[in-house]
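Sequence in, structure out.
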Amino acid sequence: MNTDISNSPWFLVQFRSGLKYALYFMVISFVMGTIYGVFGGLFIEPALFATSLVGMFCILNFIFAILAAIVNSLLFIFRKGNKSVYRYFGLSLGFALVFLSYFYLLHLFKIEVF
């Protein structure tokens, strides 16, 4: 069984899907925060907070995806690994890159959410 996923088009498909889904999550959380803010009289602050909250959970999920990929790589030595863990890692990597870029933009423009 081939465990090298670095040159695999399958992994790139999972990664691109993660990017796409992360952008969907970002837009939906921003819209939900904006709708919540409309009723409170604020627009941007709740939207940024909602997006940041979703982003923090995505980054936390990425940490667990790294751990799962490491354990799965060790299990491949004994031929007990599972390819779906790499799918999880690819999707989580896409989410992490999108939300880390979002947090970097917040830092760059000196916007404090919390």
